[in-house]
Design a protein that fits this description.
558 residues; 27% strand; alpha+beta
Length: 558
């Protein structure tokens, strides 16, 4: 991190001690003396085999700037057998959030926890430490892209009721920074999902970001999921601003102030409101870290967004403003520049070393972006209106089907099928050199590797291949919790979206499956022999109630 970035971040995050610590076996005899209200439930996260982060928010009932509260951990729901307890301090400087790192716990053990003030006791949370040594099975619930005004967080609500999910992985876009009249707000008023007057504009300040987390954490589905299961999280771009990179963001303009100050505010609010244990503490940006599930799974949570990403390329920057001619040579040179990357040298070195040293059966990358080669026919980019893209793709897919069946197609059809371009330069497609470097390292491991992805709002299953077509890993992309997907951008009804979802794997060699119109989440259950991926899609996000669930399953053999 450069000096300026460090100073800007430290100005906020170094303001107070961020995480208290507690030790199993140490039970406090103190009783809480301060009145405080627990306004946003409880949460746990970043479990290890011997520790876990506990979280709550405690607002003093007077105008006090702090309150001392008691936290308790037990192996029984009625707290008859306390494992640990102590006093922690909720401070105004931390938005009255409290984080406790409880250490000395037992592996693979379910614990119950709560917080107490003099006037109130919080709801009881449930958490689970990581298993150690021989592990037969573990199941992740994988989520991304929860947009409050877009609809209720029904996928969270469904997952909260499931006993087979051990740990929740959130791959980013936990909140969105847009104002109340911005992206995905069309139904907000009818659903009662509008923002308060003091949080109805785009997020720029520390107070803005804090207030946005506060309203997101009123959704009952999210409250229930946090209460019932430990989270392992990373951020994507919208925790700061759309299409964030290391020096700026697409949704940050010069008249919105200093980008580094905005990022520092966003990061502090994230650290305050999420049960995360940052790699080097809360005065630094690094959140890449490893979680080991005995000898079964090693999980690597990565940052492809904030820490080291180079600015995204844009096709429009390579078009002549008058003739609209595309500078293919210039674009090819720019996208192939060897120095362009997402991870940065330190994170890349750490990841390669950790995967090489791992003795776990499965290697899992938890990160934001699609790694797979998502190349669409180039003709789509030549002025086809959005609403006409599905029909255009369908025609090309039928041409490809004929070609695969050995039937004759026209020279024009063959040329259109032979020319493809990546549709999303914000994804790994925009950084092909580093992708090849990563996948080459994965190939050398000779271990089963699964990459998890969010960001796109749609569900995907890709083979991950080297440039020469050699398959090296599997990619599983989760649908969004509530953010609109491709059906919104291309103005598709359900039937059209289903046809497009059948057409794209015909045109994109590595794409095995996609769902382009439903909200939901992904579960992945690991055993030594196989990993079972199950996409779960809710029927609606217009109601907090969970209706019928549609699923799609795929089995990956080890």
């Amino acid at each position: 991190m450069d000096r300026r970035s460090f100073i800007k971040l430290s100005t906020f995050a170094g303001a107070s001690v961020a995480i208290s610590t507690g030790l199993a076996g140490c039970v406090s005899t103190q009783q809480p003396q301060d009145n405080a209200t627990f306004t946003h439930g409880v949460a746990s996260g970043d479990p290890l085999h011997d520790s876990v982060i506990l979280w709550t928010r405690a607002i003093p009932e007077s105008s006090a700037v702090s309150a001392h509260i008691l936290w308790e951990v037990s192996t029984s729901k009625d707290f008859s057998s306390l494992v640990a307890s102590d006093v922690a301090k909720a401070e105004q400087s931390r938005d009255f959030t409290v984080k406790v790192d409880v250490k000395g716990l037992q592996p693979a053990t379910r614990y119950y926890y709560r917080f107490r003030s003099a006037s109130q006791t919080s709801v009881v949370g449930t958490t689970l430490t990581l298993p150690k040594e021989n592990v037969d099975q573990v199941t992740f619930g994988v989520f991304s892209c929860s947009n409050y005004p877009a609809g209720f967080f029904t996928p969270y609500a469904d997952a909260a009721t499931r006993t087979d999910i051990d740990y929740v992985l959130h791959l980013g876009d936990y909140i969105y920074e847009y104002g109340g009249d911005g992206y995905a707000t069309e139904h907000a008023k009818a659903l009662g999902r509008t923002f308060a007057e003091n949080n109805n504009s785009e997020l720029l300040t520390l107070e803005d970001y804090r207030n946005r987390y506060a309203i997101y954490r009123t959704d009952q589905g999210l409250l229930d999921l946090h209460q019932g299961k430990p989270f392992i999280v990373v951020w994507d771009d919208h925790e700061v601003a759309n299409d964030t990179y290391k020096d700026g963001a697409q949704n940050h303009q010069q008249d919105e102030g200093d980008f580094y100050a905005r990022r520092a505010a966003a990061v502090q609010a994230y650290y305050e409101w999420l049960p995360i244990r940052p790699t080097f503490g809360e005065s630094r940006l690094e959140i890449y870290r490893q979680f080991s599930f005995g000898n079964l799974v090693d999980l690597y949570m990565l940052d492809t967004r904030v820490l080291a990403r180079d600015k995204q390329l844009n096709y429009d920057d390579f078009r002549d403003p008058e003739t609209k001619a595309f500078d293919l040579q210039g674009f090819t040179a720019a996208i192939s520049a060897p120095e362009r990357g997402l991870l940065g040298k330190a994170q890349r070195t750490w990841l390669n070393s950790a995967m090489q040293e791992s003795t776990a059966k499965w290697q899992v990358l938890g990160q934001q972006l699609l790694i797979g080669r998502m190349t669409f026919p180039a003709s789509i980019f030549n002025g086809v209106p959005f609403e006409n893209i599905p029909a255009h793709v369908h025609a090309l897919a039928n041409s490809k089907r004929k070609q695969l069946a050995g039937e004759a197609i026209s020279e024009q059809e063959a040329q259109m099928l032979a020319t493809a371009m990546p549709y999303n330069l914000d994804a790994w497609d925009g950084y092909p050199v580093e992708r090849e470097t990563l996948l080459t390292a994965v190939q050398k491991l000779n271990k089963p590797v699964i990459a998890l992805a969010g960001d796109t709002h749609n569900a995907w299953h890709n083979r991950l291949t080297l440039q020469d077509g050699t398959p090296v890993a599997t990619e599983l992309g989760t649908a969004s919790v509530s953010s609109p997907g491709m059906e919104h951008y291309l103005k598709m009804d359900e039937a059209t979206a289903k046809v497009l979802a059948e057409d794209l794997p015909v045109l994109i060699d590595d794409l095995q499956y996609c769902n382009l119109h439903q909200r939901g989440y992904l579960t992945v259950s690991f055993t030594p022999e196989q990993a079972v991926a199950t996409w779960r899609f809710v029927d609606s996000i217009q109601s907090p109630s969970v209706g019928p669930i549609n699923t799609h399953e795929f089995v990956i053999e080890s």
